[in-house]
Amino acid sequence: MIKKNDPDHPDIAGILKRIGDVYNNEFYYEKALENYKKSEKIYKKVYADYHVHFKKAGILKSIGDVYYNKSDSKKALENYENSRDIYKIIHDDNPDHPNPDHPYPDHPNIAGILKRIGDVYNNEFDYEKALEYYKKSEKIYEKVYDHYPNHPDKAGISKSFGDYYYNKSDSKKALENYEKSYKIYEIVYADDLNQLDIAGILERIGKASLYDEYHSQSIFNCRFDNGIKKLRESYKIHNLFYTNDYYYKTCSCFFGCIDWFCFSETQRCSEFLSLLSELYFCIRCFPKLLIIIFVLILCFLYYFRNEILQIINKIPQIINDLDEINNFLSCLINSSQSFNISNISYNCTYSNITFEGSRRAFKAS
C-alpha cells in the first residue's frame, strides 16, 4: 500500500507512465510528456543509487516516443540512445569484454530500441543508417523468437522495412514487407482483427498500392481499386478507436476525394459530399482545411481536364492574336500618318467560350 506521505514511490511513477501512455496514444503529446517527466523524476529519486535500471530505460523510451510523434527527431534520438545504453548494460552478460562482431545483447528490449532508432533515421531521410539499425534489430528478433515465427515484434520490424522501401519509392518491396507483416498480425489477432496494428498496416498497404498502381499505368486509366479498398478498411478500424478524432475524419474525406477523383461516379460523389459536410462541422485545425481545399482543386482539375486541355491547345492561337493586336497598337501609337478606318467584324472561339465583336483596321494613306 502506498503511503500518503510517500509521493516518490515507484508505483506512483508507474501509474504516471501509464497515464502518459494513454495521452500519447490519443495524440495529446504535451499531457503525455508532462506525465512521463513526472514519472522520470520519481524514478531518478527512487533509483538514485542505481546508475542503470530497466525502469529508467523504459521511461526514456516512452519520452523518446513522444518526441518521435512530435517529429522532434533530435530529442527522440537522444532519449532512445540513452535508453539503449542502459538496456545494453542490463542485458549484457559480459559488459567488461564486449564482442565487436556482436555489440548488442540478444534481447527484445535491445531490438525494440534499435528499431525505434532506425525509425528516426528513416523519417530524417538517412536511409542507410535506418537500414543498418533495422537489420540489427531483425537479427536479434530472429534469434530471440527463433521458435515463434509469428511474433508481433517480427511483424513490427517487417513494417519498418516496408516504410524504408516506401520512402525509397520502391513500392513493390514495400508491399512485400507490408504483406508479410499483415500475415503475422492476422495470426496474432485471429480472434479480433479490429486492432490498431491491423489498421496501421492496411493503411500502409493501401498507400503503397496506390503508388504502385499509379506508376504502373496512366493516371487516366488506373482505378486504384486495391489501394482504396485497403485504405477504407483501415479507416473503418481506426474509426472504432478514434470516433471523435478529427484526423480520421480528414482521412475519411480524403478517401472520398480519391473515389471521386478516380471514378467520377454519382454515388461515390454524394458519399464524398456527405463526408465533407460532416468534416465541416468538426474541423478545428487550419492545415487540415488546406489539405481539403488542395484535394478539391485536384478533383476540379481532373473533372474538367478535357475543357482545360482544349483551352491549353488554343493558347498558341490566343498568343498569335495578341501579337497581331500588339503590332497594330504599336503602329497606331508610333505613326503620325493619317488612316482610313474600316470596320471588320470577327468571331473568335476558344474552347466552349465564344467572343464576338469588331476591330478597326487602319490603313496608312
Task: Describe this protein's structure.
The protein is mostly helical and 365 residues long. It has a domain at 308-364. The chain is built from 14 helices and 2 strands, in the order H-H-H-H-H-H-H-H-H-H-H-H-H-H-E-E. It has helices at 10-25, 29-46, 54-69, 73-91, 108-123, 127-144, 152-167, 171-188, 196-216, 225-241, 246-263, 266-282, 286-303, 305-334; strands at residues 339-350, 353-364. Strands 1-2 form a two-stranded antiparallel ribbon. A hairpin with a 2-residue loop joins strand 1 and strand 2 (353-364). It starts with 9 loop residues before the first helix and ends with a strand. Mean pLDDT is 76; it is low at 218-222, 263-268, 277-286 and 336-365.
Condensed summary:
With 365 residues, the chain is mainly alpha-helical. The protein has helices at residues 10-25, 29-46, 54-69, 73-91, 108-123, 127-144, 152-167, 171-188, 196-216, 225-241, 246-263, 266-282, 286-303, 305-334; strands at 339-350, 353-364. It is built from 14 helices and 2 strands; from the N terminus they run H-H-H-H-H-H-H-H-H-H-H-H-H-H-E-E.
Which class do the helix and strand fractions yield?
mainly alpha
Approximately what portion of the residues adopt beta-strand conformation? 5-15%
Quaternary structure type: single chain
Average pLDDT, rounded to a whole number, is 76
Report the count of strand segments: 2
Q: List low-pLDDT spans.
A: 218-222, 263-268, 277-286, 336-365
Helix fraction bin: over 70%
Which shape, going by the Cα principal axes? elongated
Which sheet architecture does the biggest sheet show? 2 strands, antiparallel
User: Largest beta sheet: what is the strand line-up?
Assistant: 1-2
Cα distance, first to last residue? 112 Å
> What integer value in Å does the Rg equal?
31 Å
